[in-house]
Each structure stands twice: as structure tokens, then as C-alpha cells.
Specification:
The protein is mainly alpha-helical. The chain is built from four helices and no strands.
Length: 134
């Protein structure tokens, strides 16, 4: 029977991760926690504020305009999901079908992906040629 040997993580690894962890906490976790705190106040973004407890959350479920926004967002998400899936299926069928303009359809579909790489390659080639002649 083999023993599980656990590798000890060197101190250097922790020291390399520490600055990123500090930045993550500073720019992600701290604003998140502040947002949670401010959700329990009536602060408008400036000026004075007072603690209102769960009133803001109770307002979310009683205000008709907010409920309308929830319903619209739900309907939009459902419609967009269905539409994107239908269009994706039609595009996939078109790319794989035996039609007259199949090659043109594939070229039109993949052109934006290829063009950006081509432009960057040409730009870097031109840049390196200019640098080599100096």
C-alpha cells in the first residue's frame, strides 16, 4: 500500500499569490461587502444616510414597476435564448448542408475570426520590418 505523500507548497508560491489576492480583495470583495452594507441603508450615493434594515428588500417585492421589470427581463431572457438557439441551429445546418454556396457561407461566417488574426500578423510583420531597417 502506497502512502499519500503531500507536497509542501513553498513559501515563494504564497508570496507570488499574495499581491494578487490583496488586489482581488481590495477591488472585488471590498466593494461587494460595501454594496451589501449600503443595501441596508437609504444612501443615495452622496450626503447623509440612515439604516433602514430590510425595507429596501421589501420594496423589491411590492413595487409594481420593479415587478414589471422582473417580468420583462424573464420574458426577454426566454425569447433571446430560444432565438439564439434557433439561429445557431439554422447556421449549423447551413454550414453542413449540401448547397450551392456552402463555401461562401463558411467563408462569410469565419471571416471575422480569421481577419483579426490576419491584421495583427500583418501589422506585426510591418512593425518588425520597419524596426529591422533602422
Amino acid at each position: 500500500m502506497k502512502k499519500n505523500k503531500t507536497k509542501k507548497i513553498p513559501l515563494t508560491a504564497y508570496l507570488m499569490v499574495l499581491p494578487m489576492a490583496a488586489l482581488f480583495f481590495l477591488f472585488h470583495t471590498t466593494p461587494f461587502l460595501q454594496g451589501i452594507f449600503y443595501s441596508f441603508t437609504n444612501w443615495q450615493g452622496f450626503g447623509e444616510w440612515s439604516f433602514v434594515g430590510l425595507n429596501n428588500y421589501a420594496h423589491l417585492f411590492t413595487d409594481p414597476s420593479i415587478i414589471d421589470a422582473y417580468v420583462f427581463t424573464f420574458k426577454f431572457a426566454i425569447a433571446a435564448t430560444i432565438l439564439v438557439n434557433i439561429l445557431s441551429l439554422l447556421l449549423a445546418l447551413g454550414l453542413n448542408a449540401k448547397i450551392k454556396f456552402k463555401s461562401f457561407l463558411k467563408a462569410t461566417y469565419f471571416l471575422p475570426y480569421m481577419l483579426s488574426t490576419l491584421i495583427i500578423g500583418l501589422y506585426l510583420t510591418l512593425f518588425l520590418v520597419i524596426l529591422s531597417h533602422q
